[in-house]
UniProtKB/TrEMBL annotation:
<dbReference type="GO" id="GO:0042026">
    <property type="term" value="P:protein refolding"/>
</dbReference>
<dbReference type="InterPro" id="IPR036410">
    <property type="entry name" value="HSP_DnaJ_Cys-rich_dom_sf"/>
</dbReference>
<keyword id="KW-0677">Repeat</keyword>
<keyword id="KW-0963">Cytoplasm</keyword>
<dbReference type="GO" id="GO:0051082">
    <property type="term" value="F:unfolded protein binding"/>
</dbReference>
<protein>
    <recommendedName>
        <fullName>Chaperone protein DnaJ</fullName>
    </recommendedName>
</protein>
<dbReference type="InterPro" id="IPR001305">
    <property type="entry name" value="HSP_DnaJ_Cys-rich_dom"/>
</dbReference>
<dbReference type="GO" id="GO:0006260">
    <property type="term" value="P:DNA replication"/>
</dbReference>
<dbReference type="InterPro" id="IPR008971">
    <property type="entry name" value="HSP40/DnaJ_pept-bd"/>
</dbReference>
<keyword id="KW-0235">DNA replication</keyword>
<feature type="repeat" description="CXXCXGXG motif">
    <location>
        <begin position="161"/>
        <end position="168"/>
    </location>
</feature>
<dbReference type="GO" id="GO:0008270">
    <property type="term" value="F:zinc ion binding"/>
</dbReference>
<keyword id="KW-0479">Metal-binding</keyword>
<feature type="binding site">
    <location>
        <position position="161"/>
    </location>
    <ligand>
        <name>Zn(2+) 2</name>
    </ligand>
</feature>
<feature type="zinc finger region" description="CR-type">
    <location>
        <begin position="131"/>
        <end position="209"/>
    </location>
</feature>
<dbReference type="GO" id="GO:0031072">
    <property type="term" value="F:heat shock protein binding"/>
</dbReference>
<keyword id="KW-0346">Stress response</keyword>
Amino acid sequence: MSKRDYYEVLGVDKGAGEREIKKAYKKLAMKYHPDRTQGDKALEEKFKEIQEAYEVLTDTQKRAAYDQYGHAGVDPNRGGAGFGGGADFGDIFGDVFGDIFGGGRGRQSRARQGADLRYNLEMTLEEAVRGKEVEIRVPTLVACEPCNGSGAKKGSSPKTCPTCHGNGQVQMRQGFFAVQQTCPTCSGRGKIISDPCNECHGQGRTEKTKTLSVKIPAGVDTGDRIRLSGEGEAGESGAPAGDLYVQVHVRDHDIFTRDGNNLYCEVPLSFTTAALGGELQVPTLDGKVKLKISPETQTGRMFRLRGKGVKSVRSGAIGDLLCKVVVETPVNLSSKQKDLLRELEESMGKGSDAAKHRPKEQGFFDGVKKFFDDLTN
């Protein structure tokens, strides 16, 4: 099945910046994360597709390769940019034209670099903001210890293939044409193992679950990646190992919503405090703080607490906490309390007297009256 365009997967334009791509990814990742899709295989595949698109479009080299060559430029099976395939674009086209016209490059066989791995790490908002050191367990392929990754039994070593003389390819001439193909004796490795290692059976790699300690810097957010160089799969025949990418996903918080370095929260405000003013305790990630409420505060007003947001993992700048107050209408009133409210209502008067106490209400109805007057004229 053909792959969808990565820009289409994330719902962004081809010229989208990194910030726009990250924002689109965060929205989709939260919607389709496996924790929310309850084992739905189709949605899990969609999440993987989103992850793959994000990884390519936020990597400068991979994105450039994708923009120029499409999916072929980042296909790990073709050695695309940024993956552990070990080939470059010259190799991609050389394989095609060299085979047909006998390019005669005599390309040496190269052991394939180990594949890159990804580990999805879930964190709370508090952990992401403060940073922490975590231990993760990663199943992978590691270099076989008895043979030191060579694949040959201890005391012996791989021999140069007598068929291709170490090139990994053989050339067959058919009249005018010369066709190159993978060496049938060594399967393209350029070497043969006559006495394979008993542990790895000549593969040079064995399966193992590694336990790694990862330091997560303070300020990370969903979509951020920590690269652990050389902690991916071991390469073939002693080739370099791939990298391990720890992909961060921050769980939703019960109180705070994060946007970049700023935090947002809604704080309920009593009817009387909104009218008369006073002090209100609001939560922050460092504990409670007192917020001074001025008299006649309306619902929806935003209060900014500077420096109470998140410290940027890149610039070190600290964001703010923005608290939106929501005036709460009293409920479960007693008869006496209802009488007091009616008395308050009567004390405010009617007409112009009431307007000075409820200017928004008066302005709204004046606007409604003008709207209908205009319709009838």
